[in-house]
Write a structure and sequence with these properties.
The complex is a heterodimer of chains A (about 180) and B (about 425). By secondary structure, chain A is mostly helical. In chain A, about 40% of the residues lie in helices and about 5% in strands. Chain B is built from nine helices and 25 strands. Classes of the chains: A mainly alpha (about 180), B alpha+beta (about 425). The interface between A and B is large, with 54 and 63 residues.
């Protein structure tokens, strides 16, 4: 009971400046989160974006060719044109006359997405089985198949973010109108 | 029934023959009848249905009344006579392990709550089997204190409950196609369900972590094998988003995100990330694959819309609906479901003549904010071909568009967020089929 009064006083002073609901939440929240460090989260936090730092490592398409053939081609086709999984990684043109095929090369606005997605979700039958270096290598190969880089271009955190995707300007962010 | 208020037209509804009973209750073309007939189905209504009903006339004492049945059980299951009410998971694809969707059998359910075992599913890498004792939900990025929560701790937080729909933005996507698919309400529209979701307001956990002033977005990530991720604007995240742990009173089912999922009211289902393990705060969206490559729509001018979150106002007729067969002429109820990501359902209208004339349907009184509303209207079918359409208006005044309005706005390349009016054609022999008007 001894700390009842201070808590109530805190709640009351919150009600002056904030809606009642907020004060109630502060009163009721049991505050059970344990503080963690980004270090401790490094294996679980897989977000790779322009803002969230991409990991160390690098690779070229030349190095990625074999990984692609061994671990991706069975589903996406030897040339990345779709294959058995019917998920093309290559081709298409957003300016074509007929319905465009939307792929990494033709549609994706950000190169960081390729690292982020392949690391978290591919290969679909063994997600997270590639090392960061292998991810850099195999995505370099996907970019190479799309004609976006040559086979010796080193892809790493910096060069990947610097890569301008063909459809980069093709999206309208609707979130403001929601 | 005897205490109900009567008026002249209801009194007439109690006269003996269907035609004379309902002639003055016609409210729109091709046999749509007044909503008052629903409430006024007194003696006359009962008489009408008995006249056309087909009773198996066995009045002997049934076997189950003459011997005790099994006793109580640990977890109840549906009757084996209702065992055909199923989702439709389709065939497993070894090249997309665990991926795919199953749809709610909307045409076989009544009311507005979807039973947990029949809530639609969409998985990108199957259903993980998560031990809650080994599951972590962490909050990091632009916060004062990155925090990790275990399941036991989450159970001690204050929770709120909301009965709200969840709809995949790919629902009804087949109706974008040029040729009308021959499907059921389930196969065409079954990626929508409604449940009572109970959980912790995300704002409570974010407050505890201390959101930095420059944060504008959260990224939510699941613990499935695809580590599904979506970005959500912070203002929505602190408005009404729940960290949900219970569905219709019981812990989430594994396929709905056990032990913990995000529930984002009114927005496309994909952002309600299941098996929630990470919330990261940032200035910009993370540009996940499922908010760039997928869940985006390309317009005719080849620009593409991204972060099209809210689900538009929509209604569908669940009965009569695709692949049903009307066997006798007479009185039917046209009924269905309506919902809107912008609020509650204010009005549903029904047409039986392909949209030429409309009549207002009755709506269940308890239709709440972002929940499913069930609507109905009596309809007398006398064997004429009919085209049944519903259209909803929500509390924000949005009217459900026609298919041609939607197509002219979104173009032929769109795939997501189909919320246009749908038409079931009833042929003179009683067959019900999806069609375009």
């Amino acid at each position: 009971m001894s700390n009842f009064k201070p808590t109530l006083a805190l709640a009351l002073c919150f009600t002056l400046s904030a809606p009642l609901a907020v004060a109630q939440q502060i009163l009721e929240s049991p505050q059970l989160g344990n503080t963690v460090t980004q270090m401790e989260l490094s294996e679980l936090d897989l977000i790779a974006s322009e803002e969230s730092v991409l990991p160390a490592g690098s690779g070229t398409a030349f190095q990625g060719r074999e990984i692609y053939a061994a671990k991706c081609a069975s589903c996406h086709g030897a040339e990345g044109l779709g294959g058995a999984a019917n998920q093309p990684l290559v081709g298409g043109n957003m300016r074509s006359e007929d319905a465009p095929i939307r792929t990494v090369g033709s549609y994706w606005p950000h190169a960081s997405t390729l690292f982020d997605y392949v690391r978290r979700a591919m290969p679909a039958n063994a997600p997270k089985s590639l090392s960061n270096t292998e991810v850099y290598q195999v995505i370099a190969y996907v970019l190479y198949m799309n004609g976006l880089i040559d086979q010796y271009k080193v892809i790493n955190a910096e060069t990947l973010l610097a890569l301008k995707m063909p459809n980069a300007g093709g999206f309208v962010d609707m979130s403001a109108s929601d | 029934m005897s205490s109900r208020k009567t008026d002249a037209s209801e009194a007439r509804a109690t006269t003996p023959t269907l035609d004379s009973a309902t002639a003055d209750l016609v409210v729109a073309g091709n046999g749509l009848l007044s909503r008052r007939l629903l409430l006024g189905l007194g003696l006359g209504g009962a008489g009408l249905s008995a006249a056309s009903g087909a009773l198996g006339a066995d009045f002997s004492m049934p076997a189950w009344s003459k011997q005790p049945g099994p006793g109580p059980s640990g977890y109840g299951q549906p009757s084996r006579f209702a065992a055909d009410i199923q989702r439709d998971p389709g065939r497993a694809n070894p090249l997309y392990p665990g991926g795919g969707a199953s749809r709610t059998p909307l045409h076989q359910l009544r009311g507005t709550i979807t039973p947990n075992g029949l809530h639609f599913e969409r998985h990108h890498a199957g259903v993980p089997e998560i031990d809650p004792a080994a599951h972590t939900l962490f909050i990091n990025g632009l916060v004062e204190r990155p925090l990790a929560f275990d399941y036991e701790s989450l159970l001690r937080y204050p929770m709120v409950s909301r009965t709200q729909f969840l709809e995949c933005s790919g629902n009804s996507g087949a109706l974008f196609r040029d040729a009308a698919v021959d499907g059921t309400a389930q196969s065409i529209n079954g990626l929508v369900s409604c449940a009572e979701w109970t959980g912790i307001p995300l704002s409570v956990l974010l407050d505890e972590a201390g959101v930095s002033p420059e944060a504008r977005w959260i990224s939510a990530v699941g613990a499935d094998a695809a580590s599904m991720g979506r970005s959500i604007p912070l203002n929505k995240a602190v408005d009404d988003v729940l960290v949900a742990l219970f569905q219709n009173g019981e812990p989430l089912r594994p396929e709905q995100g056990y032990p913990v999922r995000l529930f984002v009211p009114g927005w496309e289902g994909n952002v309600s990330v299941k098996w929630l393990t990470q919330i990261k705060l940032s200035k910009e969206p993370s540009q996940f694959r499922d908010e760039t490559s997928k869940y985006t729509d390309t317009l005719a001018d080849r620009s593409s819309l991204q972060f099209t979150f809210p689900m538009g106002v929509k209604s569908i007729i669940t009965s009569p609906s695709g692949k049903m067969q009307l066997r006798t002429h007479g009185l039917y109820q046209v009924e269905g479901l309506a919902w809107s990501g912008a609020g509650s359902i204010a009005k549903v209208e029904i047409s039986a003549d392909g949209g030429a004339t409309w009549a207002e349907a009755a709506i269940d009184a308890q239709a709440g904010d972002k929940s499913l509303a069930r609507f109905r209207l009596p309809w007398r079918w006398q064997g004429n071909p009919a085209q049944l359409i519903s259209r909803a208006t929500d509390s924000a005044g949005n009217l459900q568009p026609t298919r041609s309005q939607l197509l002219s706005e979104k173009g032929a390349l769109a795939f997501y967020h189909f919320n246009a009016q749908q038409c079931w054609a009833v042929s003179s022999n009683g067959e019900v089929k999806n069609t375009y008007v």
